[in-house]
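Q: Give me the 3D complex with adenosine monophosphate.
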Amino acid sequence: MQFKELGLDPKVLQAVEEKGYSDPTPIQAQAVPVVLEKQDVIGSAQTGSGKTAAFALPILSLLKKPGKLRALVLAPTRELAHQIRDNFEVYGKYTGLRIALLHGGVGYGPQKKKLADGVDIVVATPGRLLDHISQKTIHLKTIECLVLDEVDRMLDMGFIEDVRRIIRYCPEKRQTLLFSATVPDAIRRLSQWALTEPVDVTVGAGQAPAETIEHAIYPVDGIQKFDLLSALLETISYERLLIFTRTKVDADRITRWLTQAGREVLTMHADRSQRERQEALKSFKEGHCNVLVATDVASRGLDVSGVSHVINYNVPHNPEDYVHRIGRTGRAATTGQAYTLFSTDEFSFLKEIERFIGSPIPRGKLDGFAYRNDPLIESKPVRKKRNRGFGANRPRRF
Ligand code: AMP
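A: Here is the predicted complex, encoded as structure tokens.
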């Protein structure tokens, strides 16, 4: 399957060719024709699967040329919203279509001006969009296509009611595309209410990390975690490294320790101002500094190319976060490596992750590191229950 065969507008196709993509990714091959047919979509795909282009390319092709506001994309975080906007700009550069980005943490002035000058596509986070709606600086009555991206994340962040409110401001007759890595009940209910006969474009298991990622668990005593991190940094040759921590406090602490050890490190978490976050991301993307310490703010959707390594300082409590975090590397068919530092008190979270991705994660041990205790390489075998004589052969009752 080639991009030419998908029915995209020639101007969009030209931008895709210039971007150097040879073939559509599986989600693009599935979703693009369906979106071009103006059908609703419920989609899930692994991170780094090319999901953004899967909706951006057909939307740009359908809108074709400037007119009124017709497409709205809702995203959970500012960073993801930025990225989606950037994608639309790149793929739409020959269309003349105008794109506005609306998110909190920055002034209203430039956003209002942009809206007043006229736009075709809005990419927004829910809170700021509702502010604009209440200030009447935007009307959604002309929306033809609504995209809800990373809806499971919006649910986690408590935005789902805001999303419902926004949907009510859109015309009932519209096309709706909903993307979510998982579909818990709340999202299923939302999709039943907001979508009409959606086409399912789930690609792959949706849960397993991409095959281009080599990942391993590094067991270590809790108090030796930072030492192991330092030793790993000495050992691996990374081009660009993301270190994830579970808390903001840990992110700050590790940044401080690494800086004291003479490393140049950037930090990104929710307590940092929008400007600081953008600057850190820019510096990391442009390669001025190649180590970024971040909380999960950075794990979803962020598309930073060339992340060669990811280190999880803690085992994430939410199994999906594990997949999202390590999914920052190995994007679009480049290979990547991910290490997770694990102490025994995190055992239950690790088990949940392995259950979620459907396979055990290999254990690793760093040669030459002075472990206080032998690291727990093998998980403890589960003791078999005593056979009381009515196990295997007893008929199962349904
Ligand atoms: P996404 O899953 O939308 O965050 O995209 C992940 C990365 O894949 C981005 O860097 C895209 O630029 C890149 N990408 C998207 N579509 C393709 C394609 N058809 N071929 C190669 N790379 C792509």
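A quick observation: Residues 281 and 291 are 11 Å apart (CA to CA).
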